[in-house]
Design brief:
The structure holds two protein chains of two kinds. Chain A has two helices and six strands. Chain A is α+β, with helices and mostly antiparallel strands. The longest helix of chain A is centred in the C-terminal third of the chain and has 10 residues, at about 90-100. Classes of the chains: A alpha+beta, B alpha+beta.
Chain lengths: ~110, ~190
């Protein structure tokens, strides 16, 4: 059972209180984009074995969307963070690097 | 004038805990920036209690404030005064980006009391009802089996359960079943 800490209301919410929102940090390609970009935005998703970033909504709770970083193989949760960001915050990034040295980050700076 | 009635007037069940319907209560939802002094002071002014911390509820008599979400607070009032209070709050906040709604008739209210009250709720909700985590004053929105609900720890042995009125019978049956005599687990 997955338990995620809601960063908005501060409770540890059980999976059954949450609604999944799919992959996080997608960039929207709308009017004016190429067909290939639009197709990728609509249909192409990461399906990693390991570190993954997801959107969740605390549906049976405060109702807010938030982000979570977790491992798809062990279900280890690295952390949850605000929905108002376009990439994982530094502390989450560092925490994952500490636990999964050598993981391939899309946001390496 | 129609007669106003709660969904299951007088329903009460006794088992490992006492379950009873609490009748009508005024509930006013305020959505907005809770950090704004005007929103904050209007809520505390109408309810007469301090603004609650995250995940808490404060009350005095029939009036109180329940923390619902980072941008939502619920004002508790006597049922008969909810409409007037709603109009007052809406008037005060008329120039502030906000939403004020009288939701009294959308809700039903139950009380679960007794030494096993926590256990009755634990059978139905994924929320952690442990005495060390869910202390008196705590207020949490969660679910009971298949419907959304909020649970409020009034004191160490009294829990108030808020749910949607349309699910009143379902919630009542859930609580009654969870409180059946002889079903104590003795976990807490």
């Amino acid at each position: 059972m997955l338990i995620l800490h809601c960063p908005y209301c501060g409770v540890d919410a059980d999976e059954t209180e949450l609604a999944p929102g799919g992959e996080a940090h997608l960039k929207r390609f709308g009017p004016g984009s190429s067909d290939a970009e639009f197709e990728a935005y609509l249909f192409q998703r990461e399906n990693p074995k390991g570190v993954h970033f997801e959107r969740w909504r605390h549906a049976n709770g405060c109702g807010k969307w938030f982000h979570a970083a977790r491992c798809t193989t062990t279900n280890e949760v690295f952390g949850t963070y605000s929905a108002q960001v376009t990439e994982p915050p530094r502390d989450i990034h560092d925490k994952i690097t500490g636990k999964r040295p050598g993981w391939l980050s899309r946001w390496l700076s | 004038m129609s007669d106003l009635a709660s969904p299951l007037p007088g329903v009460a069940v006794s088992g490992i805990a006492e379950v009873r319907e609490l009748g009508l209560r005024g509930m006013i939802t305020i959505k907005g920036d809770l950090a704004l002094p005007l929103v904050n002071s209007t809520a505390t002014g109408v309810s007469g209690v301090d603004f609650p911390d995250r995940g808490q509820a404060n009350y005095v008599g029939e009036r109180g404030l329940c923390w619902m979400a980072p941008d939502e607070i619920m004002v508790l009032t006597p049922y008969a005064e909810a409409a007037g209070d709603t109009a007052h709050i809406a008037h005060v906040l008329r120039d502030t980006h906000s939403l004020v709604a009288n939701v009294s008739d959308a809700r039903c209210l139950f009380e679960v009391s007794g030494a096993s009250a926590r256990e009755v709720l634990s059978k139905l909700t994924p929320a952690d009802m442990h005495p060390d985590r869910f202390r008196p004053g705590a207020f949490r929105r969660t679910r009971l089996a298949q419907v959304p609900a909020a649970v409020w720890m009034r004191d160490d042995q009294t829990i108030e359960v808020f749910a949607f009125r349309s699910a009143a019978r379902y919630v009542s049956d859930l609580l009654a079943n969870a409180a059946r005599p002889g079903t104590a687990v003795g976990y807490y």
